[in-house]
Amino acid sequence: MHTKRVLPLLAALFALAGGTAQAQTAIAPQSTDSVRVTSGAAYHVTAQEAFAIEQQYRLSNGQRLEIHQQENHFFGRLIDDREWQKKASVQIYPTGPGQFVSKKGATFVFSNDGEREHVTIDDAQLLPGLHVSTDMRSASNGGIRVVSR
Predict the structure, then answer these.
(1) What is the pTM assigned to this prediction?
(2) Alpha-carbon distance 128 to 15, whole Å?
(3) Whole-number Å distance between alpha carbons of 50 and 45
(4) Structural domain boundaries of the chain?
(5) Which residue did the predictor score with more confidence, 135 or 7?
(6) Residues 6+ apart with CB under 8 A from 73
(7) What does UniProt give as the signal peptide span (predicted)?
């Protein structure tokens, strides 16, 4: 008889404890290593947009940015003319027309001046292999911006 009363009580306590643990997990602060990219509906890059941005860009710091698409995913990779080893590609996520963001928070804005595509990268220091001169580092207020030429 005693066991019949204890089992439902234990089940209720475990359910309550599990719900509390889930709630704590849901409100735990996110790591500063990454930015969560979420929206109600993901932006779909058109074939024309993809064709326009998928190329190499000469950047203001002397490096090149290569954008490529692989199975509906976009990637960016910094290239140094003196590199011996390829740098890692970073997946970039579309957030709007001509706008992308990396997992760590670097933002890419692509535009066209009528003659060619341009890119502006804010918080570029978050990209692997970025070369930054002392002048660029001292002129920045926390974030580094590089632009295509």
Answers:
(1) 0.69
(2) 44
(3) 6
(4) 47-147
(5) 135
(6) 91
(7) 1-23
